[in-house]
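[agent] plan:
  1. take the single chain provided in the ticket
  2. run structure prediction with default settings
  3. attach C-alpha cells to the ticket
  4. add a short note for the reviewer (M.T.)
[agent] executing step 1
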Amino acid sequence: MTLKKKNSRRDFISSSFMLFGSGGLGLKPPVTTATAYEKSARFYKSNHRTEDLKFASVVQMAQMIRDKEISSVELVTTMYNRIAEVNPQINAVVLTCKERALEEAKKADELLAGGKVTGALHGVPMTIKDSLETAGVISTGGTLGRKDYIPAKDATIVARLRASGAILMGKTNTPEFTLSGTTANLIYGMTSNPYKEGYSPGGSSGGAGAIVAAGGSPFDIGSDFGGSIRGPAHFNGIAGIKPTTGLVPRTGHIVDYGGLFDAYQVLGPLARYVEDLKLILPIILGPDQIDAAIHPVPWNDPESVQIKNLEYAWFIEHGSSKDCSEETVEAIGKAVASLESAGIQLKEDAPIEEIKEAEEVRYELFGADGRAWVSRLTEKYGTTQTHPLLRLSDPSTAISSGAFTELVEKLDACRSKLLQWMQGYDIVICPVHFDGAAPNPDVFEKSSWSADEYGYMGTFNLTGWPAAVVRAGTSKEGLPIGVQIVGQPFQDHKVLAVAEYLEDQLGGWQAPSM
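[agent] step 2 finished; step 3 output follows
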C-alpha cells in the first residue's frame, strides 16, 4: 500500500467526522477584535522573515494572515503542496484531514474579514503527533489495536491550540506507544530524515521533527518520555522544548499521566524557530482539572530575561561509557564561545556521580515490574501484534516489592541531589546526543543498551527540568547537531531566552535540499 492511498483513506474517514467533536474538550474558540489582540500580543513581529512561505515561522504566518498579506486558505494549501512534495521520501505525515482543514481555513478568513480573530494562532496550520487524540481524526499511537480509532474529543493540548485558531492538517508518525528512538510502526512503516535519505529522524516524535524541518508544517507537538522532543529537534536541526514537568497537561496522550513514571512524560512544541516556541508554550500550559500533576504556574516573558545576569555551567563529560563525536564537541564549544562573546562566564561542571546514580536507578526502574506497564498498554488498546521495537513484559527483570519501593525512594533521593547541585546555576549547556543521526535500521534487533551507556536526555526527564534544543553544528554525514539548554524547574522562560540567543549566534535551522 502506498502512502498516497493511506492518506486518501484517512482523508475520507476524517472528513466524515468534520462536525463530530469539533469543539475538542467542550472549548469554544474565543473571538476577539483584531485590534484588541494586537494590543495584547507579545510576539507579533517575526525576527525570521522569509519570502519562502513554506519555511516561514509560525509568528510570521500568523502576522501575515492578520495583515491580510495571505489568506489562511492559501497558507494551508501551500503546506499541503509541500507535504505532497516531500512526504513520499520521508513518510512523516501518515494521515491528513484536508477537507476539514480547508473548511476551517475558509471560516478563519471569513472571521478575519469581519475584523475578528480566534486567538494568537488564527488560521495557522499545524500537524500533530499521532500519539495525541484528535477529534474526528484517526489517532493510532502507532499500535494496531487503535488503527481505526477515532476519538470523540481532542487531547487538552490540541483543544487549546485549536481554540487559539490553529488548523489541524494531519498526524505525524510515531513508534508504537512512543516507546522507541526509531520512528517506525506496523501501521505506517518507517520515517526518514529530510537531510539524508535512509537516516533516522529520531524518535519518538520523528514524524513531527521531519515534517517541520522539511517545511511541510510550521509546528507540531511532541511528547518526551526520555528525549522524544529533544532527540528529533537535534536530529532534524529544528527548535524544541521539553517544558518543566507539571506545566502542560498530558490528557489525551496515549501514554498520558499518573503512575511511577508520571514525572517523565512531558508534552511540548517543535518548530523551526525559538520565537515560535515562545508563542506556543503559553497557549498550551496550565491545569485542565484532569491531569492532577499540572500546576497553575504564571508564565514569565522570555523577553524580560537578561541572559548576562544568569549563572551558567557547561559539560560534555558526564560519566557515560560512550564518547561524543568531534563534531558534537565542536558544536558545544561554539555554543559556549558564543555565550562568552556576550560577556558571560561559564563554569565547566557536571554532577557526574549524581547523574551516574540517577541513570542506574532509571535503568532499573524501567524493568522493575517486568515491564508489565508496557503490556498493560497493549491490553488496554487491544493490540495483539506489536512492532519488534516494542519491549514487552520480561518476568526475568521483575524485582520484589521491597526492592521496588527502595528504588522509588532512591529515585526521589536522586532528584533531590541533582536539584541541590542545580541551585548554583540558572542554565546548563550540554550535548543532546553523542552525534548526528545514524541510518535507520534494516533489522530490528533487541537493544544491547546498558546502564553505563546513558546519554544526555533521560536525566532531565527524571528531574523534570525544562530543556530546549537548537541547531549548533553538522555531523560528518552532513546531518544536524543540536545543543541542549537546561534550566531550573519552572524557569522555562530563561531556557527559551538563552536558546533564542544561541539560535541567532549559531544559525539555527537550515533548510534541507529536498
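[agent] step 4 note for reviewer: The radius of gyration is 21 Å.
[agent] ticket updated
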